[in-house]
Write the structure tokens for this entry.
Amino acid sequence: QVQLAESGGGSVQAGASLRLSCVASGRAFSRYGMGWFRQAPGKEREFVGAINWSGASTDFLDSVKGRFSISRDNAKNTVYLQMDSLRPEDTAVYYCAADRDLRVVVPRDSKAYEYWGQGTQVTVSS
């Protein structure tokens, strides 16, 4: 069983930056693809971005491309979501998730992810 814990959320003004962290328990983190998802009030959970097990491949939702980036530190069992130029529409609870299948490209489908964190709130005001 893998446990994921997000941190780094908060309330910021539009244009600001935040960096979310997700720490995983266990020894197999370096084999997992990691994804970030978000869910705004009244909306379905949506894919934000993902990074494969090696860090060589990333993918992003179109609306965050050029503003968000993902990195991972396998020695620290941690994946990061750097969010710049935040907009009010980025307001949501952000979740990290782990895909235990070794893939070159990490999927956007939330059903592919076996483990989920509890989420961290990000609020962006105009």
Observations:
- The two ends are 40 Å apart (CA to CA).
